[in-house]
Amino acid sequence: MQITAKMVSELRERTGAGMMDCKKALNEANGDMDKAIEILREKGLAAAAKKAGRVAAEGLVETYISEDGKRGAIIELNCETDFVAKNADFAELAKNIAKHAAYSNANSVEELLEEKFIVDNNVIVKDAITALIAKLGENMTFRRFERFVAEEGVISDYIHGGGRIAVMVQLKGGNEAVLKEVAKELALQIAAANPLYLNKEDVPADVIEKEKEIYRQQALNEGKPEKVVEKMVEGRLQKYYKEVCLIEQLWIRDQDLTIRKYLENKSKEAGNEITVVKFARFEKGEGIEKKEENFAEEVMKQVKM
């Protein structure tokens, strides 16, 4: 398979490895991006790959929480250009879809698109999007949503960068004042530190095994004897948990505390155990690649890399 400059550039962005190392890894992996990432990590040339590829799609991520605080939703609505993303009608549509998602019974985007729109029962959600596409002359996609329902506790949200990153978190336990304070802190934590899971138990077994195999190969490549390899693997796995699990992460406001310890301290203050029920973090366009002219790619083509 021909290795293109664009593939090398994407691998470099996802791993932070050097340009030539990325090209060699892609050649060795016959163009398989995930395999190339593994090769780089096994050689100790890259940290854990970023969750998603290059963030490129335009649009907005948006949240909604009901007045009683019992329902919420986080959504992503995409468009083709930044110009439309900043359009007032597009922003209003995103807000209304987030509100609709909070009260919807749909289990998928496809189901939600066919429901009567909460702000206008004369149209379905899909038709409301189509109407705005016709008005603004640009394609739009309702990409994803996650609904939050809290019979007890609180739901909190946070939007960063004018609709680039959105977070929603649900907590229970403790008194409401403390819960709201903690929920806001955790929303900021999630936005900044981008945890993939709530705790160790949520990490899929196949992900753990894949990480272990990479760490094992790293240790062997470093020339470590077999008897210490497993200890090194376990040590690096614990470090991985601290990076990807919210409860295990260091609190961004106080690096002497993990989120687990922070929650324990606030639980004592509240006189009741505070528990994270769930969270979601949407980043605009994550994992979507937008076709565009790339100056760096053109330069690399010129030097016939």
TrEMBL record:
Q: Does the keyword NAD apply?
A: no
Q: Name one GO cellular component term.
A: cytoplasm
The GO terms describing molecular function are: translation elongation factor activity
Cite the Translation elongation factor EFTs/EF1B dimerisation domain residue spans from the record: 72-286
Q: What does the UniProt entry say about where the protein is found?
A: Cytoplasm
Does Cytoplasm count among this protein's keywords?
yes
Stretches the record annotates as Involved in Mg(2+) ion dislocation from EF-Tu: 81-84
Keywords, sorted A to Z:
Cytoplasm, Elongation factor, Protein biosynthesis
Protein task: Associates with the EF-Tu.GDP complex and induces the exchange of GDP to GTP. It remains bound to the aminoacyl-tRNA.EF-Tu.GTP complex up to the GTP hydrolysis stage on the ribosome.
- What family does the Swiss-Prot or TrEMBL record give for this protein? Belongs to the EF-Ts family.
Q: What is this protein called?
A: Elongation factor Ts
Q: Which organism is it from?
A: Caloramator australicus RC3
Q: Which gene encodes it?
A: tsf
